[in-house]
Each structure stands twice: as C-alpha cells, then as structure tokens.
C-alpha cells in the first residue's frame, strides 16, 4: 500500500463487506432462491466496485466477474457466495499488507512498517493463520 | 390480428388496465361487469353523488310523466333507456343488446301507481325495480343507469381519450338523455372512439362504478331478507313471481332491505377487472404443477395447462394484462396458449414490442419431459403468422442443447426469439411473487438476457 487513504479505503471496504454479508446471509438462510431486490443489488454492486478498485490483480476472487447484472436476478445465495469470496480475498490482501513491528501489528506503507495500527494478519497466502 | 382485441391495443396505445381510470373495452365482446348505481350513491365524491341524483331524478320523471297522462312517453323513454350498447358491459359476445318490450316497460312504469310510496315520493334507488318486475336484473339496471348518464359518459370518454391519446372520430350518438327537456335525443358531431369494424361509438366507463353484481340485488334480498315463510309455507310455491307480487304489496320489506344496504354501504366496493390469486394459492398451484407427471396420461397435460393457466396471469399482472387462453390445433395436435396484451410498461416489454413487433405475447404450454424440434417449429410457425416474433415456451425441463441451438438459429436467421420457462423458473416467479423483492416478470427478463447472450 502507498498512502494512508488507501488504508482508510480498505478498512471501510472490510466493514461494508461484513455488513452486507451479515444482512444478506440472513436472507439467504431464510430463502436462498429468492432474488435480491434492485435497490439492494445496487448497493452490493457499489461495494463490489470499490473492492475491484482496491484489490490488485491476483487478489480478485473471480477472473470473469466484476458486477452483478440486474437482469440476471441473482439470488440471495448467489450474492452471499460472491461476498464471502470477496471478504476472504480482501482479508488476504490486508494480511499481506500488515506486519508485526515493535510489539504491535501495523500496516506496511511503501514496503516499510507505518505507525498505523492494524489487526493481526489472519490469512497468509491462502492459509488461515 | 389481435386475440380478443381491446380498444387501446388496436390503436397501438400501451396502457395497462391497472393504470387506466376506465375499463378498457374489448372490440368484439362485452366487459363482464356492470355499472352499479349504488356505487355512485355511496361515493365520497360529490360529483358522483350528483350524477346519482340526476339519474334518480331522470328515472322518477318517468313516474311524473305517467301520472300526468303521458304514459306512452314514459314507456318510450324507458324502452330507449333500457339498452346502452356504447358502453359494452355485460355478457354479450357481440357488443349488442336488446331493448325491453312495451309490456315490460309498462310493468315498470306501473310501479309508480302500484306502490303508493313510489307514487308519492318516487324511487331513492331505482335498482329496486328488480324486486317487482320479472326479467329485470343487473344488466338492465346497468344499461338504464348508463343511458340516463350517457351525456356524462360522453364527456368522460372525451376526457380520457385526450389523456391517453386514443383516436376519436366525429359520430352521432343516439338516445342521449337531455336533462333539461327530460327526453332522449341524438347528440350530433361528438368526438368519440369508434369500433373499427362497425364504426359505432364506444363510451368508456370509470372503473370505480363497476361491480359484478349490484349492491342492491334480488338474490341477496331473497336469500337474506325476504320473509319467505310469509310468502309461502311450501317451498314449491316460493317462486320468483310470487316473491315479486309479495313485494309489490309489502313495500316496507323492500324498504327495510334497502335501508340495511345503505347502512352497510361502507362495505360496497367496486370489483376489479382482474384479481390476482393470493400467494398461498400461487404456492399451492406451484406444488400442483411440480407433482404433475409429464405427458398426457390421466389428463396430465390438461391439469398442467390449467394450473399454469391460472398461475401465470396472476404472476405477470399488472405488467402484462391477460387476454385469454386459446386452444388451437396444428397438424392434428391440440395446443394451448396463454395470450397476454403487451402493456409496454418498462424497458423489456418496450424492447419486445420494438424488436419483435409483439403487441401481444404468447405463452405456449407443453407438458412434455423433453421439448422436441417439432415443438419449437410449431411455435415458430405460429409466431410468423400472427402475434409478433417473440414467444415463450412453458415446459417442464430446460431445452436440450440441440433444441436450444434451434431457437438460437431461429433468432440468427429470422430474428425470432423463443424463450423457455421451466418448472424452476415458475418456482422462482412464485418465490418473488411472495417476497416482493423482484417482479415475477423479471424472471422472463433474465431468461431473455440468457437467450440473447447465447445468440451470435
């Protein structure tokens, strides 16, 4: 990562993805095949768009997916699946960009430990820590 | 050629029935609803109430005429009022009704002498004539109301035509009631929509005035309010005629009934032109569809067609107005279709209209385990003939790749789109019908999007 703003954007993204996942996974448990309405789909797409923006290539979960298409009527379970994948990949990206330095976890900026504290890395490569 | 053409669709006006203030008339048959004068009486709108007052005054004027030695004029006026073909309400298959005869008209007019209350005070609700005269029922009540209100309906129709861009022609309208002269005359040079085949004028009627059965009606009276024991102790003698005779001598009983109906006027609502089935019924229909075997054994095809036929119109309403189920035979095979009017509401339906010329959309039902090439060809031939180049095949399972490729080839070669709805798609339609998260029509949009992606 290069700037503080990128770290802000990443942290916002993590919170948004988690929020969406909490909401939509509940809907998916109730009625997995029901379609997500257009309003919610728009919100999901905007969060996915910022994830696509923030994640470098190699961290994007699907090569041929960028947005949900409204006409495809994605179901609750479809959306939950995709968001889960994004959460995993965002966390992998975050884990790769934090380090344990001077007794605490901090973000790495331009290859060096910064003073911005971070949560512990949980995913290194594809392995859960 | 349209199936069960409506005035708006004939003129290429895209208007869903749910969005229209009036009942959209059919060109070659009646709308099976009736004007209930009670709806005008109970309306919160002062305008409607005044129309009711005018209507009752016009009807009571017949009594005034009879009382003052002009019985023939009263009879002639009532006969003129007894049919109103321009509105096209009722059950006639040809938009043409028959007026009452002189005897029947005299019988109605005689009520102004026969029943002291009417002689002195006239009618408060003229639909009470159903309780005294044989052969007068909802259609006649509706026609009399429309005839006396014809001038109002002409103004309303002109107004609605202007709002909806419905084409009009200058025509003469017969038997328009002149409130000032209390007589019927011909209104000349009126701009109204006309029936393209007969050139006869068409009048539009507000939906809020329509019911299947008038609020004050004979059956309800007979069943719940008529003192049947007083009329006859033996059921065999409790005939319609006996009840009518009894009523003539016992106005109080009728008055009590009418007062009761006025008291419960809050419950009197207009009837919709189309009622969706509730969600529970939709789920039950879906379960029924899933349990039906494919093929024709034990009437399975008929059961499937009935279940889908009652489900789809509700699922697709109000985006698509249901026209009718149509059975046709091709190469000795009976085929059942559901035909919908394309209301062109929303981008998808507009696209279907623009790209495929579909003023109506055909859903062909096929209860087969596997759709064969001949089934695709059947719907293909049908699309080329009549209903635009977009069709939907409702069947049990997804198309096999050969048949799917055939539909793609039809698009490539002739720009015809045949979309398939399977049990799974119907299930998803029912699911969103319940959850209201998306519209069931969106499933069709999805299938079309998938189809177009597969096209070259």
How many angstroms does the end-to-end distance of chain B come to?
31 Å
Helix content of chain A: 40-55%
pLDDT < 50 stretches of chain A: none
Report the oligomer.
Answer: heterodimer
Question: Overall 3D geometry of chain B?
Answer: elongated
Overall number of strands of chain A: 5
DSSP strand content of chain A: 15-25%
How would you describe the overall organization of this protein?
The complex is a heterodimer of chains A (129) and B (456). By secondary structure, chain A is of the alpha+beta class. Chain A has one domain. Chain A is 50% helix and 16% strand. Chain A contains 3 helices and 5 strands; from the N terminus they run αααβββββ. Chain A has helices at residues 4-30, 38-54, 76-96; strands at 98-101, 104-109, 112-117, 123-124, 127-128. In chain A, the strands form 2 sheets. Chain A has a 3-stranded antiparallel sheet. The model of chain A has no long low-confidence stretch (mean pLDDT 92). Chain B is α/β, with parallel strands linked by helices and 456 residues long. Chain B has 2 domains: 7-267, no CATH class; 279-454, Restriction Endonuclease (3-Layer(aba) Sandwich). In chain B, the strands form 3 sheets. Chain B has a 5-stranded mixed sheet, with helices on both faces. Chain B has a two-stranded antiparallel sheet with strand order 1-4. The longest helix of chain B is centred in the first third of the chain and has 22 residues, at 46-67. The A-B interface holds A 31, 33-38, 69, 71-73, 75 and B 427-428, 431-432, 435, 437-438, 442-443, 445-446, 448-450.
């Amino acid at each position: 990562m290069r700037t503080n703003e990128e770290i802000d954007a990443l942290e916002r993204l993590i919170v948004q993805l988690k929020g969406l996942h909490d909401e939509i996974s509940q809907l998916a448990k109730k009625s997995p095949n029901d379609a997500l309405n257009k309003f919610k789909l728009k919100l999901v797409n905007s969060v996915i768009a910022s994830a696509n923006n923030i994640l470098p290539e190699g961290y994007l979960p699907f090569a041929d997916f960028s947005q949900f298409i409204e006409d495809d009527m994605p179901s609750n379970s479809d959306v939950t699946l995709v968001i889960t994948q994004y959460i995993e990949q965002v966390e992998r990206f975050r884990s790769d960009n934090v380090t344990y330095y001077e007794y605490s976890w901090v973000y790495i900026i331009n290859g060096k430990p910064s003073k911005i504290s971070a949560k512990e890395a949980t995913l290194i490569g594809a392995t859960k820590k | 050629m349209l199936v069960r053409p409506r005035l708006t669709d004939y003129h290429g006006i895209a208007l869903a029935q749910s969005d229209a203030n009036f009942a959209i008339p059919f060109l070659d048959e009646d709308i099976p609803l009736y004007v209930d004068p009670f709806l005008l009486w109970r309306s919160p709108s002062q305008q409607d109430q005044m129309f009711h007052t005018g209507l009752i005054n016009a009807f009571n004027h017949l009594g005034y005429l009879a009382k003052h030695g002009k019985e023939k004029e009263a009879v002639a006026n009532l006969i003129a009022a007894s049919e109103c073909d321009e509105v096209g309400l009722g059950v006639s298959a040809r938009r043409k009704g028959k007026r009452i005869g002189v005897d029947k008209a005299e019988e109605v007019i005689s009520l102004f002498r026969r029943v002291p209350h009417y002689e002195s005070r006239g009618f408060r609700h003229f639909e009470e004539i159903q309780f005294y005269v044989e052969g007068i029922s909802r259609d006649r009540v509706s026609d009399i109301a429309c005839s006396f209100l014809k001038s109002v309906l002409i103004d309303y129709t002109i107004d609605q035509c202007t709002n909806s861009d419905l084409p009009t022609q200058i025509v003469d309208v017969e038997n328009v009631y002149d409130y000032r002269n209390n007589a019927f005359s011909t209104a000349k040079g009126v701009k109204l929509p006309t029936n393209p085949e007969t050139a006869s004028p068409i009048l539009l009627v507000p939906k809020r005035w329509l019911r299947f059965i008038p609020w004050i009606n004979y059956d309800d009276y007979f069943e719940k309010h008529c003192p049947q024991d007083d009329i006859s102790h033996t059921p065999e003698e409790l005939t319609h005629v006996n009840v009518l005779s009894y009523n003539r001598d016992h106005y109080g009983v009728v008055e009590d009934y009418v007062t009761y109906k006025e008291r419960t006027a809050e419950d009197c609502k207009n009837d919709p032109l189309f009622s969706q089935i509730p969600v529970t019924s939709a789920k039950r229909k879906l379960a029924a569809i899933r349990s039906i075997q494919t093929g024709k054994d034990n009437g399975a095809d008929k059961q499937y067609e009935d279940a889908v036929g009652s489900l789809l119109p509700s699922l697709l309403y109000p985006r698509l107005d249901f026209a009718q189920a149509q059975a046709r035979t091709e190469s000795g095979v009976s085929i059942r279709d559901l035909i919908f009017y394309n209301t062109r509401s929303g981008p998808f339906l507009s696209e279907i209209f623009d790209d495929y010329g579909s003023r109506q959309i055909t859903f062909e039902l096929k209860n087969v385990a596997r759709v064969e090439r001949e089934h695709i060809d059947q719907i293909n031939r049908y699309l080329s003939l009549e209903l635009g180049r977009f069709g939907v095949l409702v069947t049990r399972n997804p198309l096999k790749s050969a048949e799917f490729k055939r539909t793609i080839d039809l698009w490539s070669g002739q720009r015809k789109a045949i979309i398939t709805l399977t049990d799974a798609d119907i299930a998803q339609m029912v699911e969103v019908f319940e959850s209201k998260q998306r519209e069931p029509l969106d499933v069709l949009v999805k299938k079309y999007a998938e189809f177009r992606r597969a096209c070259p």
